[in-house]
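User: Quick one: structure for sequence A, then sequence B.

Assistant: Sequence A:
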Amino acid sequence: LLAPLRTFFITNAARDKVGRLIQYALQLVTCVFKILPPSEARQRLAQTLNSMVLNLSNARRAARTLEFSPFVAVLTRHKDPELFGLVARWAIAGFHCLDRVRWLQQHGLALSLFDGSTRTTTRLSFRMLFVAHACRTIKELRRAATTHEAARLTRRLRHAETARSRFGDSSGLNGCSNG
């Protein structure tokens, strides 16, 4: 029953479309709230919905940025986990530099980058922070995947999956039934 939905969500484009649908639906609701007579409860709900729309928009933008970035594509194919650590350190340094520039901009001590607002600098610095955390996470996952215990568990799971698909067995790894 859920197989068509699962195959739909395999692609990034499908997930982005669903995210866009939710984002625009939330924007529609906030626009309806603006048309209705004002009330404190509606105003609070509209603020919450606007923050959700902003977070969803930023998440979609970050996913598109990472999806189309050739640098990230090359990086994910690389086998050395230390490269991810290096990129994470550079991204953290970029985040801190841009955060300092933003602070100086707020106090009128530095020229604004790009469009003349601190908002763009803030957004760019948080993108750097996102890249840093993503690379750090990938580095730790790759390092954990190279341990002997991880290799043993992977072999055991593959063997169990092969046996299950071959014999149509629905038992788990320890022989207990799932349902």
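Sequence B:
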Amino acid sequence: GFVVSGYHGVMGDRLADARQPAMAERAYLQSLAAYPRYEYAWRLGVVEMGLKRYDRARAAFEKAAQLDPDNREALTELGSALTGLGRFAEADSVLARVVALHPRGAGEALIYRARLHFHQGDAVAGRHWLNEARRTLPPRDPAWRDVRRLEDELKRAGVAGGAPSPRGDAPGDTPPTPR
């Protein structure tokens, strides 16, 4: 089981690196069938997200979260897959769990929450979560790229209030009330 899983997992990695997602998917599925391992469930989810197969990605990230229940990356990506499926309340709940479990390392989850709320038309909540991401992200964190990308999208879309205040002190930047 374990050795066979490792073999297929490594093959999945190589195929994913070679930009052969369909074959990588098969290899990761074989790996998980032989012996379920977090890293291959997570990588399968990443492949599925790249193919925009959100339901399959959700299943893979759920498996990864089952194998490592408090894993920040698995839960964050599960929230992203649920968002892709239009299951916004579930996505927000999963992302809230990430923030609760990893308050100092939840930058991506906070950005996803912001994006989710802006997408639903709730600019106050979206601005709140984006400001939380800005407040908690370390200065050199690669997620700052996603913050800037979201701010640019908001400016282009003409979202009321423009870009959020850098310090989170703009009027209305109070924590949103639960829906």
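Residues 1 and 34 are 5 Å apart (CA to CA). The longest helix spans residues 2-17.

User: Thanks, that's what I needed.
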